[in-house]
UniProtKB/TrEMBL annotation, chains A, B:
Belongs to the ROK (NagC/XylR) family. InterPro entries: ATPase_NBD, Carb_Metab_Reg_Kinase/Isom, ROK, ROK_cs. The lineage of its organism: Bacteria, Bacillati, Bacillota, Bacilli, Bacillales. GO terms for molecular function: fructokinase activity; metal ion binding. Signal peptide: none annotated. Its EC number is 2.7.1.4. The keyword Cell membrane does not apply. PANTHER family: FRUCTOKINASE, TRANSCRIPTIONAL REPRESSOR MPRA. It comes from Saliterribacillus persicus. It comes from the Bacteria. Keywords: Kinase, Magnesium, Metal-binding, Transferase, Zinc. This is fructokinase.
């Protein structure tokens, strides 16, 4: 069976045709413009390719409740052209195949569980630290959702004692995303993350916030693995700092061999999939149900 | 089929025999003493009752990984007589039936989903605010667990600006449990919760912390309902304060009709089951797999 896969991001759409073995047979990348430009290009790409189902991992917030009349509709995204755009319905209508939709980070978590760095466990968390912070959880073949989809980047956090930066989140100011995503590095230190590589205090503070978030996710979700990706995590120096801070914050409370100095680098890991994570995850999503 | 059910708490064990319809046919309560006293009483109660499976919702931390050689073993509980006690194995050995084990709060979440105030949804969170703070999540027929079981009471929290109480948690001092469980009320204000009913600032601060926790749980788990129980929640005045604070903290970020002034009292609710929640949940657990 041929399957369609879309990774819909704020800057680009990756479109793929693949099969149930997770092979991508054909792939293109198009920029995210106004929906009236981008969506016709998407339809054109899939036209006549014989796909029977389509999976879509989307930027959000987006309605991912399959029983909702607004399934696949974008909500109050910062990409204003896309606010309230019924992406799911347009694709379903245009292609005449079932469309299965989830968030980009849920799809990435699923993709890591199926083909990446979490294939040996039943539960995992994927977190991206980039322009924003988002995370998705995989749990025994499904992704975590309910009332809406998780928005794990917006949790409240305790401030680092040396930090008086007010925060960038338009909704919460100093939520996690507001003080630890890429733009907050720029705003706090006056330079982009990639230009701050040699300044240890930057990464100690960043690790403090990200470790606090992981500690919270561990207490609440107890995932069997945590995969960390996104632009900011390209600073490989963050990994050992985050691991150390997580162990200190947990302070021995959760019993697991993975939550020890010896094994934590097998617990908090970089992604196993790079380029094709989103589109491969969307392929897997297309196979659901 | 007859099923056995145990609600194992720090002060008492509730033992029940029931059936697959959730009826409790017989029930006794015994105090939690040394395991060498309590466990023989448990075995004696179930002896000859013809139960084919046993469900146990236990105080913890406890190993709830069914594939672990230490399944059902207590870990570093404050009840020192029970540290490292292999409760699951002793019951399985003594009764010769399969024993299915989960945490007390996971069992309560399942019980509310099956027979209580969350029967109309597929996901819910149950939180108890008593001597400690614990929460369990129900997700499409299962309870949430992974590396270990969640310990949602121990998440880090931002301090209330008027609060300088240091916190009681032996592991983390001012984690949520350390500053918002029953004993912290006693320590901060010099009186037990039940004696502080008429002091509004007590409940405003308590609501600030509990609402912050719920906000975090909503961002991470997105449950379709939140059920709040435990001794401290007997202060019914907490419910409207918590609901108001949750809406303020979310600040409109999560789209759902339930996260509005109009419907939030159907979203954050008291338990539907009272006395028999634990033992009924354990019965349901006994039917799993
Ligand atoms: N090597 C790097 N070190 C630190 N920060 C980086 C690095 N590369 C990119 N970033 C930051 O990551 C953010 C972009 O994140 P990315 O995951 O690439 O994209 P997006 O989140 O928009 O999909 C920017 O704020 C950028 O400054
Ligand atoms: N009506 C009440 N108002 C406020 N606090 C209460 C009330 N009743 C009990 N508590 C507090 O709740 C805690 C006991 O919680 P409970 O859920 O009854 O037991 P446990 O958590 O030990 O199973 C104590 O700290 C007690 O002071
Ligand atoms: Zn925010
Ligand atoms: Zn704690």
């Amino acid at each position: 069976m041929k399957l369609g896969a879309i990774e819909a991001g704020g800057t680009k759409f990756v479109l793929g045709v693949g099969n149930e073995q997770g092979e991508i047979l054909e792939k293109i990348v198009i920029p995210t413009e106004h929906p009236d430009i981008t969506v016709p290009k998407v339809l054109e790409f899939f036209e006549g390719k014989g796909i029977e189902r389509l999976g879509l991992g989307g930027f959000g917030p987006i309605d991912i409740n399959a029983t909702s009349p607004e399934y696949g509709k974008l909500q109050k995204t910062p990409k204003t052209d896309w606010v309230d755009y019924p992406l799911g319905a347009k694709l379903k209508e245009g292609l005449g195949v079932p469309v299965i939709i989830d968030t980009d980070v849920n799809v990435a978590a699923m993709s890591e569980a199926k083909w990446g760095n979490a294939t040996d466990v039943n539960t995992c968390l994927y977190i991206t630290v980039g322009t924003g912070i988002g995370a998705g959880a995989y749990f025994h073949g499904q992704t975590l959702k309910g009332l809406s989809h998780p928005e794990m980047g917006h949790i409240p956090v305790k401030r680092h004692p040396d930090d008086d930066y007010e925060g960038t989140c338009p909704y919460h100011k100093d939520c996690l995303e507001g003080i630890a995503a890429g733009p907050s590095l720029m705003n706090r230190w006056g330079k982009k993350g990639q230009e701050l590589a040699d300044d240890p205090k930057v990464w100690e503070m960043e690790a403090f916030y990200l470790a606090q978030a992981l500690t919270t996710y561990i207490y609440i979700l107890s995932p069997e693995r945590i995969v960390m990706g996104g632009g900011v995590m390209k600073q490989a120096q963050l990994f050992p700092l985050i691991r150390k801070n997580v162990l200190e914050m947990l302070n021995g409370y959760v019993s697991s061999p993975f939550l020890t100095e010896k094994e934590i680098d097998q617990y908090i890991v970089p992604p196993g999939l790079t380029d094709e994570a989103g589109v491969k995850g969307a392929l897997y999503l297309a196979m659901q149900q």
